[in-house]
Design a protein that fits this description.
Layout (H helix, E strand, L loop, with lengths): L1 E3 H4 L5 E6 L9 E4 L13 E6 L2 E11 L8 E3 L3 E2 L8 H13 L4 H8 L7 E8 L11 H13 L2 E2 H8 L4 H10 L3 E8 L6 E8 L5 H10 L1 H12 L4 E3 L5 H13 L2 E8 L19 H12 L4 E7 L5 H14 L3 E5 L7 H11 L3 E4 L5 H12 L5 E4 L11 E6 L17 H12 L2 E6 L4 H8 L4 E5 L10 E6 H4 L13 H6 L21 H12 L3 E5 L10 E2 L16 E3 L4 E3 L6 E3 L12 E2 L5 H11 L5 E4 L9 H10 L5 E4 L12 E6 L3 H4 L6 H13 L10 E6 L5 H7 L3 H15 L6 E9 L2 H16 L6 E13 L2 E10 L2 H17 L2 H4 L1 E6 L6
Parallel strand pairs: 14-19, 14-20, 15-17, 15-18, 16-17, 18-19, 21-31, 22-29, 22-30, 28-29, 30-31
Antiparallel strand pairs: 1-6, 2-3, 2-5, 4-5, 4-7, 8-9, 8-10, 11-12, 11-13, 23-27, 24-25, 25-26, 32-34, 32-35, 33-34
The structure holds adenosine-5'-diphosphate (ADP) and zinc ion.
Length: about 850
Amino acid sequence: MSHSLARDAGARAFAAVALVPAIPGKDLLTYQVPETERARVQPGVRVLVPIGRRHETGIVVELSDTPPPGVTTIRAIADVLDDEAILTPDLFALSRWTADYYVTTLADVLAAALPGGLRASTARVARLALPSAEAPPLRGLEAALVSRLATAGPASVRALARTLADRRVDAAVRALAARGVIVVEEQLRAPAAKARLETVLELARPLGDDERRVLEHRAPRQHALYERIAAAPGCRVDASALNRSARSAATGLLRRGTLVSVRRERYRDGATSAPVAPLAPPTLTSAQRLAVDAIAEQTSFQVVLLHGVTGSGKTEVYLQAATRAHARGRSVLFLVPEIALTHQLVTRVRQRFGSGVAVLHSDLGPGERWDEWRRVARGEARIVVGARSAVFAPIANLGLVVVDEEHDAAYKQDEGLRYNARDLAIVRAKLAGVTAILGSATPSVESYQQALDGKYRLLTLPQRVEGRPLPTVEVLDLRTLAPVTPTAPPGPPTRRQRSAAVVHPAVPGQRDDARPSMLLSAPLLAAIGETLARREQVLLFLNRRGFARALQCLGCGEPAGCPSCSVSLTLHERRQVLLCHHCGFARAARSPCSACGRDALRAAVEGTERIEQEVGAYFPSARVGRLDRDTTSSRGAQRRILEAWETGALDILIGTQMVAKGHDVHAVTLVGVLLADVALNLPDFRAAERAFQLLTQVAGRAGRGALAGRVLIQTYRPEHHSLLAATTHDYAAFAPRELALRKELGYPPFSRLVVLRFEGVDAERTERAALELARHARALDGSVAIRGPAPAPLERIRNRYRWQLLLTSRSVQALHRSVRHLLTTWRTTRGARATRLVVDVDPVSML
Ligand code: ADP
Ligand code: ZN
């Protein structure tokens, strides 16, 4: 397969190829372009290339006339899989930017950018060469291999290695093949995502009246088919829809030249099929009109931060801005945090743009996803709605980018390529020279600071549409409503004990399920009762994502925090310490509260399931639903519960984060936040911001219709600035306070952050590897500050220990330089052998 370079050198003779999936640590590989394929091989097409003893799929990135220096033999491309490029030039540009910014390879970015299932690959398949009777006597692994092939038939070498669970399978296969006992062949496996073709019969020429009469007389079946096709939309029918007699009639008409048969691509019934009745846009409010005009008047790159309270009509602004871009023949990229939770929004987009909408979501099969991708690439769908990976959709002629709920952490991919789709959306808009709208009721303080600096244009929608009031928000102080009692009362609770809500789990992990929930306080229960009596709906929210191991004083509310990093400490059960996972500060787990001196540090957590049971007991005639990870693990369950909620088939919905987003249900008039502290005490410097966003968003679920809404927030920290600002829906009060704190501590947006995370199966080696690289990091130039290393808050995931090192700097360039330098150093250290190093640029979750 190798060729000498001198012979084959010539124009476009070499291709730099990115393998999909990428080989860790390797970027582009160079291959020869066979003479006969020079016309087809262009950047963006898929090719099959040899790598080691197998073949893999790759994407051609660029062509050149000369081989890379120092390389003497280069293997040839084995096959070309596409006739047209599946990646556009601007996607290459975006991918290059991404690889550079997130300190990774272009191959890694392309692998993440492309829809799954595009891989063709080969497998080495082994079969017996001789009838087993003639096989020479074999022992051990070789005997096991041969007997396996004799009983189960041919199998791929990979599958054999898996079933026999022996690392020496590969060598044994080679030895047996060398002796002629077995034969190993390479077989091509087709990619999972392929275009689906159909045969269509089209009218080649219309018949005149005379011809039709003759046809009717001589061949009535052919005549009937002719009339059917002539009457069909586009004068064509799908050949597979014809019965046998019609098919034979078609053969006759094809022979006469009346029909032609065409093979063409047919899209699967993915998201595109469900028809939606069109809905005319409402007349804009004056604030909305100002926003839409401001967006439309600029014809070059700009970022607009659209800050509008919940229900202020931001979505309508996106839709009308999109309508204008669409009318100019341009395409629109519309990013949402999670498709499954935003089907109302998808419906609204469809109502406006009909079948010209492509929805990219994770539920699509590889074939459907491929079809949507092709519809977008061909410009047949010019409105593209999707979650974060849609930022890589092959949109041509981009005219507008919208990022709804721009503050949402879901935009950050937290595995593999750790990109933030909101930030890439801005880069995409910049590359295309168009407007990016970032919309939110609670903008991230990063985006808000950009607006204050004049880099983003700030547009605000200060009021709800049609003068609907924002809900009233009240804070319920659990310190007085639920005073600390370290032990449970004996026996089942009486009604009076319940309504006083006086009980607590004493120590994490020692909960007594017979106790009533401490999270249903008397005022909250009273409010639920009143709401149900008015036949309105109640939403109860319990934040559970994150973290049960942050402790707080249930006497005064103060969380156990790090004195230098201003984050919550986390309980490490093994060592019985409270630990700062930024800097490593530690104190004893059983220690008095540093603010009030009481021995009342606790984790105040409860499960949604338990809340559901108790709510059911208090309100036996209410229809109660629960939405969390447990109730939505089956496909479609989430949709069913939300539909019941939206149609009023449920009176009370209890849920986690999933209920906070986007639902516009008009009969919801009471929202109860069961424990705001879970969010406030998250061991993350963004905890206060996340809490404010979450509370504002949950509160925004109340009173969206004609009825006024009421929100009750239960907490042990009623004076926290996030809570106070949330009660008055006052972003303008929250942001300056939060920004001042960030500035003081040197956190974003006043610095850039990179986390280096060390993951390994051995606790000590992982720690040593982290300490070693930290020493190298401290020796770097002074423009980058180093914190840690320290164990990650989630100290162990899937059997891997996790340590982290924090790098901060005001200069992105300095940060990038240091990270690259450290990566090079890392490869030479002993730690690299047993430990994985993950680079997270602009980390969002610090857990
Ligand atoms: P947001 O995205 O800011 O939460 P929406 O765009 O969803 O707000 O608007 C809230 C509600 O008000 C929706 O039911 C929407 O249909 C309606 N709405 C939006 N703009 C207008 C308008 N100009 N006139 C009447 N109703 C509107
Ligand atoms: Zn610290």
